[in-house]
Amino acid sequence: MSEIKLPEQWVKPYGDTLGDGRVQLSFTLPVSLDETAKEGAKRLALQMGLEEPAVVHAESMGQGFSFFVVYGQCKYQVDLSGLQVAKPEFEVLDKDGINAKIAQHMGRRMVVIGATIETDAHTVGIDAIMNMKGYNGHKGLESYHEIRALNLGAQVDSEVLVARAIEEKADVILVSQVVTQKNIHLDNLTRLADILEAEGLRDKIVLIVGGPRISHELAKELGYDAGFGTKTYAEDVASFAIHEWIQRFKGPAHV
């Protein structure tokens, strides 16, 4: 059987005119702000492949640090037709649909425990998914009458999270992590997955991670069932959770 080839779809960044390749990027340099630093930022942009770069904004970030915004022209383009991006395959349901599916297939409330773990003190993401008010007009899991949502908050030790999951007989663990420059989040997430594995719970709990630069591909590599990035709402997480639970415990034919 011959492979079906999609038509090529080449794209370039768009700024003022379609296909002009205009881009804007920002970065910090560990130097005090002066004309030499500005020229250095410009030369760095050239080495990144930007043509005709211009420093459109620069300001001091304190002693020995400077912030730059550079505008330039990208000469590269990409063929989207040749890309394959990993993403979880499931139907996103509305709140009523999710409640109905949980009631039909579980016959009880789904227990979801959420937290940010270890040193991560950011709660915006986990609160947006878990809390009653939710985010951007999308109600959180606490508002779903077929879900028992327990938000443990920030800086929760992985052992504590797992112990609470055992105590509450959790069906789902939802972790929010901010991506760190030194990749501490990878150690945190790996540690949690390892603890669940050691406790013999990994196959019994749907494990989900979310964060501003989390991808599904990264989540799967770390041993999670799904990863969600920005523009994710409670219904996305809940739809995946019940889909995964049904597939795991009742079989694909019931999904």
Residues in helix, %: 25-40%
Instruction: Indicate the mean pLDDT.
Output: 92
Q: Uncertain runs with pLDDT below 50, 5 residues or more?
A: none
Topology pattern, helix = H, strand = E: EEHEEEHEHEHEHEHEH
Major pleated sheet: 5 strands, parallel
The helix/strand class is alpha/beta
How are the strands of the largest sheet arranged? 7-6-8-9-10
> How far apart are the termini?
29 Å
* Rounded radius of gyration (Å): 23 Å
Portion in strands: 15-25%
TL;DR of this structure?
The chain has seven helices and ten strands. By secondary structure, the chain is α/β, with parallel strands linked by helices. Strand 6, helix 3 and strand 7 form a beta-alpha-beta unit.
Give a structural overview.
With 255 residues, this protein is α/β, with parallel strands linked by helices. Helix content is 31%, strand content 22%. It has a 5-stranded parallel beta sheet, sandwiched between helices. The protein has a 3-stranded antiparallel beta sheet with strand order 2-4-3, with helices on one face. Strands 1-5 form a two-stranded antiparallel ribbon. Helix 2 (95-105) runs parallel beside helix 7 (234-249). The longest helix has 16 residues, at 234-249. The mean pLDDT is 92.
